[in-house]
Each structure stands twice: as C-alpha cells, then as structure tokens.
Task: structure prediction
Amino acid sequence: MTAQPANAVPFAFDTEFGADGAVLRASTWQPTKRTFAPAEVEALVAQARLEARQQALNEVEALRAEALSIVAQTVSQAATALRGVAEAHRRESAELALAAARVIGSAAFERFPRRPLEAAIEALGQEMDATPRVVVRASGLDQDGRAQIEALCAQAGFSGLVVFRDEPHLPPAAFALEWADGRAEFDPAEAEARVVAALNAALAAEAGHAEPPLEGGAHDRRGF
Result:
C-alpha cells in the first residue's frame, strides 16, 4: 500500500444536485491559478510597485519623525545649557561689579569718611529744622570735624543744638542722626548687604525662581 503525502487533500465533490438534476449548491472549490495573462502580470507588478513605494514612504516618514524628535530633544538640551551659562555669566558679572564697587567704596570712605554724614544732613535739613537738638553718633570725630558738621547744619537751616556722641564701635563713614521726630543712620556693611540682597533677588526673579522684594521702610528710620 502506497502512503499518501501529509499535505494530500482527498477529493471532495461538494456540488449538490436536486432530484431533477438542477444544481442546488455549487462547489466553493477554486483551482489554484498557475498562469496569468500579460495584462494581469502588469497589474500585479503595478500593485507590487505601489505597495513597495507606500512602504518606502512610510519608512521615510518614520525616519523623518525620529530625526525631528532627536533635533527637538537636542535643541531643548542646548537651550537649557545656554540658560545655565547665561545665568552663570550674569551672576559672575554681578559679583565682579560688586567686588569693584566694594574696592571703590572702601577707598572713598577712607578718603572722605564724613561725606555720607554731610550728604544726610544736606538731605534732611528741612526735617531737622524745627527740632531743638540733633544728636550725631559717629567714631573718630575730632574738633575740626565737629566744627565742619556744625557749620553744615547751619547751612542746611538747622539752628538748634548739635550734640556729638563718640561711638568707637562704628566703622569709618558710619553714623547715626537722631532728632525729635526721626532717625537716620548709615553703615557701609549694612548698605553692602542690602545691595547684595537686592541683586540676588533681581537675578533670581530674572531666572524665574523668586519674586523681587517689595520696597519700603519706616518713616522715622532711614538708611543712606
């Protein structure tokens, strides 16, 4: 007995006829087409070319989308790095400007230690005009310095008594003015600290990390 191949399909006659010989149900079997007409071949080739072209276009579109994604990611990383460089540059520039201002201010205060006090008296002359006495607190005021301050108070319109209080703990150029209705003071270290704090707040606000501080102060206590 001859063995049949594993893929052999036994013949099945599935056409159904009626008693009068009419076909009630036609067979669904279709033979495998092994030959094609030239027109069919051309149509199949054209269809294959169209499918290949569409597949190539899809691959190109996928590559383009991937490339755009890589470019966008690279640009985002570069922008972040540039923002960091810009912030560092601004901060370094501010630190350099502060260092230069610190050196210039220190030299100016050493050469003209009474100039901040003189400027305060000139600015507050009208406010101190009605008070009977002004107390000047400073360090290192000799007789000539006190005489110059008294003369400056007179030029500013103050006709009352000028009282001096020696404060050895105050640094050069620091002072405090006290009168009946108010007080004004100046300390180079505190002024520098306020400038540094304001600059840091401005840098942080520009970088989007904080809000700038509100300006304000008491009416009877002023810093120069």
Summary: The helical segments are 38-111, 115-123, 125-128, 143-155, 188-207. Residues 38-111 form one domain. The two ends are 121 Å apart (CA to CA). The chain has two domains: 38-111, 113-216.
